[in-house]
Amino acid sequence: MGFCSEQLQRVAPLWQQMLRHPFLLQTRDGTIPRETFATWMQQDYLFVEAAVPFLAALIPKGPAHHWEPMTQAIGALLRELRLFEERAAAVGVQLRGSRPSFTTHAYIQFLLATAERATYEEAYTVLFAAEKAYHESWKVVQLGLSPGSPWQPFVENWAGATFAAYVTYLEGELDALAGDAGPDLLSRMATAFETTVRYEIAFWEMATTGDSWPGIPASGERW
Ligand code: MP5
Predict the structure, then answer these.
(1) Nearest atom, ligand 1, residue 158 CA
(2) Pocket lined around ligand 1, Cβ cut-off 6 Å
(3) What is the atom index within ligand 1 of the atom nearest the CA of 133?
(4) Residue 91 CA to ligand 1 centre (angstroms)
(5) Predicted local distance difference test score (pLDDT) of residue 221
(6) How much is the pLDDT for 180?
(7) Best CA proximity match to 181, nearest among 114, 111, 115, 120
(8) What's the gap in Å between 221 CA and the centre of ligand 1?
């Protein structure tokens, strides 16, 4: 069994918790409050913006045969930002100028710190875990979302065939990197995998419960 399958099996209870998150089920069923979805859009826009320097920082650390796919992945992120902007304009959500929530801030710091300070293998693990998580999460939404929903373009983006192929490619490459890794590195990669899944759950939770910081009521955010 490859590294990715092993990790998915190891964290299966957490993974299932992620896929059963009320945010996904309510989006699928069309019962998600508008403000909740707007919070997710504003916060995920910040996340995707940060994913650009995350990927860019990985290029010089990785093998040459990863450079072109990584560059293409950055192009896909830039197109994704345009998708957010187009959807936000279509439904009247203000995207720009949002403050990152505590969870978004922490997740972004984790991404960037991993890219800068950890090994390429650990950072690639974070990349795969986050992309696989989004692919499977939006597949859950895809199962029941009404075809006329304004959120269909997000489903098409992450649950569609192009993204599925990208995730499969990442899995093959990560399994190959793990195949060359010693036990210490493998253990750090496993930790990176699990931490990413925990952040993914925290992100859905934050979108559902609101973007205020612990100890600071939402009204305090005006100052
Ligand atoms: C992704 C995302 C998918 N947009 N947001 C979170 C919180 N996790 C994963 O990554 P990408 O970079 O949009 O493909």
Answers:
(1) 14
(2) 44, 47-48, 51, 77, 80, 130-131, 133-134, 200, 203
(3) 9
(4) 21
(5) 55
(6) 97
(7) 120
(8) 25
Torsion sign across C-alpha atoms 109, 112, 117, 122: positive
* Residue owning the nearest CA to atom 5 of ligand 1: 44
Ligand 1 nearest atom to the CA of residue 203, by list position: 7
Single pTM value for the model: 0.96
Q: Tokens 């990349």 sit at which residue?
A: 127
pLDDT for the residue numbered 223: 47
Burial of 183 (0-12, 13-18, 19+ CB in 10 A): exposed
Compute CA distances 116 → 33, 158, 188, whole Å: 37, 26, 15
For the chain of 223 residues, list the mean pLDDT of each consecutive stretch of 10: 97 98 97 96 98 98 98 98 97 94 98 98 98 98 93 97 98 98 98 98 97 81 51
Residue 134 contacts residue 198 (beta carbons within 8 Å)? no
Ligand 1 atom 12: residue of nearest CA: 48
